[in-house]
Structures are given as structure tokens and as C-alpha cells.
User: Which sequence fits this backbone?
């Protein structure tokens, strides 16, 4: 008798999604599907709008990582204007992007995922959350909140507001960095650096404890993609695309992001609103690749900052190169937080960051603009095609979580096969299915977060659509 | 001997307070002189009053109908009420209908933070739109080398048409169509970029209360600051010059 288990909604992720697990007659998982249940239509409703609205308009797709969309959108607009933006403007955009990586990674690690690691995947969901974490380990919760606060405040000091600042614009940024704002960011850096180091020291041994999860949370060979600079070091703002295979061989090197369409194509499935990008030379679905913190650490030669490089060496010596389990995204995130803080130290200590020439102006000179950046969750691509007056005719966005779609589906299947048995439906086992999704920190639409618990209703149906079992978790 | 013009002095009450006014002044003029706030959208100092937006509707004791303060002249013994629950409700309704019709998504609008529609909604407490959004799709005219016209953000206040005609004397802009299809056009509904009459003076940009008309160049979301006072100054200077002649 075949059965279907539905997990809807998935909790402690950004956005709305559900998972269905399809069991065969013997009760083992045959198919696992990750459904994005919202249609949002950004590519459609931006048609007919002037190009200069695009960074802000597209950033509205997300409340967690709007800065990455602002960056990619503004870079696409720079190309439409065909201008070289002032160096300081580029550095200011980088600084805001680093601040966003810090706050977003802190959110993912401390608020959304840490409860699983601190309490265990089978713990009572009533306490397995940030509130429970704050009760059990107040310092750890405070650290997470402080890191996120620092990231958000830095974004505010640069752009005037924490979420959706309209500061990153076509041609640069709208305002230079004020000296006293630079000082206010700088003075906090030693403290947040200590927190990042402390978080690494705390989480490294804890993450190592969950060997079974490490083995099954998206542990399979795949390609990895990310931006690197000319030396092959990590890049979040500029750079060229690099793809490595599951053995760590570089198979695409120095790829101009403007030629992304030759590298990536998108497939569509009828059961989800999210598309399935794939590496074009290998076809669909074999061209499955991953992006994000782990993928970035897997494609780069070095980070380029001392503390992050030391962590990278340790990471590679422990988990091999390339590390293949998506579980390692968690540790990769903490390394990126440290890297971002080190880079903030460098960028802010150079007085050229206070230069007041931060914007280049021009009329639309090109019909296409393609902006690529590394968001906290991975590579994002914004492509705008405009008419001769700069009005958008069509747009294409490929977002980090989209790149990971094939891998996420594959990961759920792997976890479900390891933990879910149709005869015994437990919250802990379904939590692991959700947790593997959380490892990718998917940003499905905008932000919906639960403090406490979100209602979770799981139904198990047999092949005749008869309800066999129900698991209900009420909202707190 | 200089001829002295006789000025008719009128006394009336605004919200129960006795005030004096000159004959020929509007209720809105007198309210402003006495620091009484009456919300307006289509009205702008320097432009000929129009009475289109109806936000300045006030009550007059003994009159069953509400009257627009911007075009209603004061009269002796008039008792004007500018603010009560009923008027507040009507004004919120007017704003709500404006927000219902066209695409006024502040967050991605160039005029965010400098928009009169947005600030009035805030002041008058219009925080919800209860009717379905209509959002007719208008083509953005970006053909002009200096300006962009976006009818999707237009409230048809007619300020741009009046400033173009009455102050600049070009009369490039006008309103075409009726009801929900009404929109600002240039000349005989040609692309603005082709206009032989537009003097590129940018007065329309300065008077536009929303983000419907904007300057190109270094002006992105939330950056459309306006110099609205300049129109009253221009009108005053012209009047002074005419009197000198």
C-alpha cells in the first residue's frame, strides 16, 4: 500500500514550503518532494518599470537578504548605464553585503538551526527553539542576537534603515559613509570578532557530535559553484564564476557572469513554483550543483584573511576537500561570519572608504544588464533587458535557493530514507527532514519566522487516500 | 492724489474661533492665515485653484452640502467647520479611493518620503485599503531625455497641467480620457520625448505631489525631493512685474 506523508508548513525556515514523502507498499520512502507553495511573479510585474527602480523593487522579494538583491540589481543597472562606479562605492556595497552575511548567518545558525544542535533532533519541540535556547544557554543566545544586531545596525548606519535600504542604487550608492558612522561600526568590531571566535569554538565540537546527520544530510557527490577573484580567493561582490566537481577538480574557471546563460539553464516541474537550474554542459538533472557557504568554501583556493584561512585549513583537514555533506553549511556559515568581520576591519580602516564621490551618472547605454553577487545562501543572478529609454522589457532572476533546488530535493530523499519509516511517524524524524532543508537556509520568499512553534500538521495517507495517521503540533 | 482701493472686511468663524478676512479670499486662505490645517492635494500656492481632489471639503453651518475650501470664498457671518469625525472619515475615504485605483506602492517609488499623498495618508490615519486594488496598467513614458511620466502613480490633481499652462505658458501637458482611463499626456498624446512645445523647465516635476513625474539622472527610489515653494515665488514675481508695467 503506497502512502504519502505531507509536512506543511516546514518550520524555522524563511518562507513557505511543504514536503511530501511518498512511501511504497513496504513502507520505505520512494520519492521525496520539496514544494515551494507560493507564486510571487517578480519577473513579471517589473515589466514596464524604469530600470532605476529595479534594485529596490527586486530587493522586496526578501526581507532577510535584501542587500544581496540590491547589490545584484544595482550591478545589473551599472551595466545598463555602462558606467564604472567609483571604487569607494564598490567598497561600500561590499561592506553592506558583509554586514548582511553576518546578520543572516547569525539568524540561520543561532535562531533557526542551533536549537536542533543544542537540544538534539528528537528533543521536545516546545523547547527546541530560540526561546528554549535562551533559557538553557543565555550567553549563546545573547551572542547570536548580538551578531545579528551588529549586522543590522551596520546596514542601518550605511543605508539609513535595517531592512530594504534604498541606498544601493544604479551607479553606486546614494550617500557617502559618514566618519562618525564609520567609527560606530569600527568600535564594535573587536567584540563581534570575539563572539564569532567563541561561536566557532562552541559549535565545532557540537556539530561533530551528530555523525549520523552529517552522513545523511545531503551527503552525495555534486558540483559546487561560487564567485572567486583572480587569485581564486572567496568573493561575495565581484569576481568570476567557478564550478568544481565532486572530486574538487575545477571544471569551469574564470567564467564571466554575464555569460551565465551558456553555463546554466532552468528546468520546470509541475509540482513546485521553484525552477530547477542546472549546469548546462551536463544536462538536466545530472547537472545538479550546490551554491552557498559550503559551495563557496569548496570552490575557493583561500579566504584571504588570516583567521578565516586558519579555520578553512582545519575544516578541510577534518571533512576533506571538497566537503560533500550539506550539513557542513552550518560550520561554513560561521567561518564566513569570521571572514566578513576580518574584511570589515580591513575595509573600514582605510580612509578612502570616506570618499564622497560614490555615484556615477549616465543615461541608459546598454539594453542588457546582468548583475551577479554572492548572497548569504549562494550565488544570485539578476538579468534585466530594457528598451532604449531604460524601461524594463523582461527580467530574469536566478536566486541562491533556486540553484540548490535539485540538491535540496535529493537531500530530503536521502534523509527520509534514513529516518522515516511509514509505520512509525515521530516528530523527531520529521524534524530531521525539515532540518536538512534548514541546512541550506532556504530563503523561499520573504521572512516568516516562528518564535516558539509554528503549527505543523502532518497527515499520512495510504494509496486509497485514507487517513492512516495524524501528527498535530499546535502553535505556541 | 492716490486712489485708495476699498477693502471689504469680513468676519466669520472657523471651528468656533472668530476670524477676520478680506473679501475675495477663500476659506483655505483664511484658515492658513489662522494656522488652521485643512488637508489639500490638488491645491498649490501659485497655481489657480482647481477644486479637484475634494480633500479640503469643509462644513458650513446652514448649508447641507460640503464645500471645497480651496475655491469657496468667505462670506460675512459664515460659520466654517474644518475638522470633525465626519470630515475625517470622508477625507480618509478619498485617500483610500486614490490608493485603490493606481499603483501607489511607496516602498519602491522615487517619491517615497517626499510624497504628499503618502504624508497625508499618515496624517489622516488612512492605514488600510479595504477595496480591491484596480491598478490599470499605464505605459511609463521615459522617452524624454530629462523627465519620466508614470501615470501609474498619478492622482490626476492637474498641478502639472496648470503649471505648464499657467506659469510656464507651454501647455505641453494635459489630461486625456475619462474616469479610470484618464491620464496625463503631452501635446496630442505623443511621446513626451517628441514634444515640440516642452521647454524642459521641470516645473511639472516640482509640483507633482507623488512620483508620477520625475527627473532622470541621479534620482532613484526615495530620492525625489521637490522644490514646491518655487512656484508660489514665480507666480508672485510675475504678478509684481505685471503691476510694475
Assistant:
Amino acid at each position: 500500500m503506497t502512502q504519502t506523508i505531507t509536512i506543511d508548513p516546514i518550520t524555522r525556515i524563511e518562507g513557505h514550503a511543504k514536503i511530501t514523502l511518498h512511501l511504497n507498499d513496504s513502507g520505505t520512502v520512494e520519492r521525496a518532494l520539496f514544494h515551494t507553495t507560493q507564486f510571487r511573479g517578480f519577473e513579471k510585474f517589473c515589466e514596464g518599470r524604469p530600470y532605476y527602480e529595479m534594485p529596490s523593487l527586486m530587493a522586496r522579494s526578501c526581507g532577510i537578504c535584501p542587500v544581496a538583491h540590491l547589490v545584484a540589481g544595482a550591478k545589473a543597472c551599472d551595466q545598463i548605464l555602462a558606467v564604472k562606479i567609483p571604487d569607494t562605492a564598490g567598497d561600500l556595497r561590499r561592506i553592506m553585503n558583509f554586514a548582511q552575511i553576518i546578520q543572516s548567518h547569525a539568524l540561520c545558525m543561532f535562531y533557526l538551526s542551533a536549537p536542533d544542535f543544542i537540544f538534539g533532533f528528537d528533543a521536545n519541540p516546545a523547547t527546541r527553539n530560540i526561546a528554549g535556547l535562551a533559557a538553557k544557554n543565555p550567553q549563546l543566545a545573547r551572542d547570536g542576537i548580538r551578531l545579528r544586531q551588529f549586522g543590522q545596525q551596520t546596514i542601518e548606519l550605511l543605508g539609513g534603515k535595517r531592512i530594504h535600504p534604498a541606498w544601493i542604487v544604479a551607479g553606486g550608492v546614494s550617500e557617502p559613509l559618514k566618519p562618525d558612522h564609520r567609527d560606530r561600526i569600527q568600535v564594535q568590531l573587536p567584540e563581534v570578532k570575539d563572539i564569532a571566535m567563541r561561536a566557532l569554538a562552541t559549535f565545532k565540537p557540537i556539530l561533530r557530535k551528530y555523525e549520523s546527520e552529517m552522513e545523511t544530510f545531503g551527503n552525495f557527490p555534486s558540483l559546487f559553484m561560487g564567485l572567486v577573484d583572480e587569485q581564486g580567493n572567496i568573493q561575495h561582490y565581484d569576481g568570476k564564476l567557478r564550478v568544481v566537481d565532486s572530486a574538487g577538480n575545477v571544471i569551469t574557471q574564470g567564467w564571466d557572469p554575464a555569460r551565465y546563460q551558456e553555463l546554466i539553464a532552468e528546468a520546470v516541474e509541475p509540482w513546485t513554483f521553484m525552477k530547477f537550474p542546472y549546469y548546462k554542459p551536463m544536462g538536466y538533472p545530472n547537472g545538479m550543483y550546490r551554491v552557498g557557504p559550503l559551495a563557496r568554501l569548496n570552490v575557493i583556493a583561500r579566504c584571504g584573511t588570516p583567521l578565516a584561512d586558519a579555520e578553512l585549513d582545519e575544516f578541510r583537514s577534518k571533512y576533506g576537500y571538497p566537503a560533500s555533506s550539506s550539513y557542513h553549511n552550518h560550520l561554513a556559515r560561521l567561518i564566513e561570519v569570521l571572514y566578513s568581520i576580518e574584511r570589515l576591519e580591513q575595509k573600514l580602516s582605510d580612509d578612502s572608504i570616506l570618499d564622497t564621490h560614490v555615484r556615477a551618472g549616465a543615461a541608459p547605454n546598454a539594453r542588457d544588464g546582468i548583475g551577479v553577487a554572492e548572497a548569504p545562501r549562494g550565488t544570485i543572478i539578476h538579468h534585466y533587458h530594457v528598451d532604449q529609454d531604460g524601461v524594463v522589457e523582461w527580467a530574469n532572476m536566478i536566486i541562491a535557493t533556486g540553484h540548490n533546488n535539485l540538491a535540496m530535493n535529493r537531500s530530503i530523499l536521502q534523509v527520509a530514507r534514513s529516518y522515516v519509516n511509514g509505520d512509525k511517524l515521530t516528530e523527531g524524524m520529521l524534524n530531521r527532514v525539515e532540518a536538512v532543508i534548514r541546512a541550506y537556509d532556504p530563503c523561499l520568499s520573504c521572512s516568516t519566522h516562528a518564535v516558539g512553534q509554528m503549527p505543523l500538521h502532518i497527515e499520512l495517507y495510504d494509496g486509497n487516500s485514507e487517513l492512516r495517521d495524524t501528527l498535530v503540533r499546535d502553535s505556541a | 492724489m492716490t486712489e485708495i482701493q476699498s477693502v471689504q472686511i469680513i468676519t466669520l468663524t472657523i471651528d468656533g474661533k472668530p476670524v477676520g478676512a478680506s473679501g475675495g479670499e477663500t476659506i483655505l486662505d483664511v484658515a492658513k492665515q489662522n494656522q488652521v490645517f485643512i488637508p489639500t492635494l490638488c491645491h498649490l500656492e501659485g497655481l489657480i485653484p482647481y477644486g479637484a481632489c475634494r480633500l479640503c471639503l469643509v462644513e458650513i453651518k446652514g448649508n447641507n452640502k460640503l464645500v471645497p475650501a480651496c475655491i469657496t470664498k468667505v462670506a460675512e457671518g459664515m460659520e466654517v467647520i474644518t475638522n470633525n469625525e465626519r470630515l475625517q472619515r470622508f477625507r480618509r475615504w478619498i485617500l483610500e479611493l486614490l490608493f485603490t485605483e493606481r499603483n501607489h506602492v511607496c516602498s519602491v517609488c522615487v517619491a517615497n518620503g517626499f510624497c504628499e499623498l503618502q504624508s497625508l495618508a499618515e496624517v489622516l490615519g488612512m492605514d488600510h485599503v479595504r477595496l480591491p486594488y484596480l491598478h490599470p496598467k499605464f505605459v511609463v513614458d521615459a522617452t524624454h531625455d530629462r523627465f519620466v511620466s508614470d501615470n501609474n502613480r498619478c492622482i490626476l490633481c492637474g498641478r502639472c497641467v496648470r503649471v505648464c499652462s499657467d506659469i510656464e505658458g507651454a501647455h505641453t501637458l494635459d489630461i486625456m480620457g475619462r474616469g479610470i482611463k484618464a491620464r496625463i499626456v503631452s501635446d496630442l498624446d505623443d511621446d513626451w520625448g517628441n514634444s515640440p512645445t516642452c521647454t524642459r523647465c521641470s516645473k511639472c516635476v516640482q509640483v507633482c505631489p507623488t512620483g508620477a513625474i520625475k527627473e532622470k539622472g541621479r534620482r532613484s527610489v526615495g530620492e525625489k525631493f521637490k522644490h514646491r515653494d518655487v512656484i508660489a515665488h514665480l507666480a508672485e514675481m510675475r504678478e509684481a512685474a505685471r503691476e510694475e508695467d
About this structure: Chain B has a mean pLDDT of 93. The first strand of chain B starts at residue 9 and ends at 14.
